[in-house]
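Input record (one chain):
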Amino acid sequence: MEWSDAMEDRAAGVLLGQAIGDALGVPYEGGMRFSEGHAEMLGGGLGGYEPGEWSDDTQMALCIAQVAATGADLTTPDALDAITRSFIDWMKYGASDIGNQTATVLFRSTKDEDSRLWERATRISEEVAGRGSAGNGGLMRTAVVGLSSIDSEEKTAKAAGLVCALTHAEERCVESSVLWSVAVRHAVLTGEMDPRRGLPYLEGTRAAWWSRLIDEAEAEPPETFVPNGYTVTAFQAAWSSIHATRHIDGPDRFAAALQWAIAIGSDTDTVAAIAGGLLGAAYGASQLPTTWAEQVHGWPVMTATDLTRLGVTIAGFSGRE
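The corresponding structure, as predicted from the sequence alone:
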């Protein structure tokens, strides 16, 4: 695969775009809808964050990123063990916030020694999924998986499903993560955003079901998709916000789409983080608003520069010849 400067810039934009969306949405989490265009990096929110500080969405993405940056194949047991261990360490020592399902799965995984760590986590996650939970905790961190197998769309889809299932094994959670990660990979390679790109990797009738949901996200205004703690409405809210700004040329669309994602209300940091990862993959780090990029920071003591380097490193292992 030929690796261009533009692709490298777009790879650098994935984690940075997610972190900007996350930090921009933090102050408004759990709030009601308001007029788009007014979100600022004020900090506060549900975790008492500093202005520009990202939340658990990006913290968990960085757990994945640090494993991927070693060149690990995220579809292998060793890599999945390492990610699960990183999640558990984060829960114990770094989490500013953590979802109930994620906490339950990770805590219980440390109490059982009869199998590999990632298998324990996945099995417990499947048990939780059996009770009908389909939260957005897998989707919120999945964009970086789109960088981990830049040479293989099929492996990207497989990795996205396996990494999501470590805490969110419910079918809809896995599918939403597969679609978003494949879309991120495609955006890095082409600059185009296409949430339908991953439909062939879904089983049976699921592709048709998701195709209808994507159609709905494009037909309805973004504020339709609330509450969005559910993985499907989070996916739709993020894509609807991006699609609603398709008339805006160039990187100005990045800011406009994030403003929409946050104005929807509800799980604002997560929806904006999801949208930001894909937008960053399409426009590249160099095209993202400098004033926002200069403010972002968070666990584990990282800034925008660290995020861009990490994105390039992850993609470089599998993308450069």
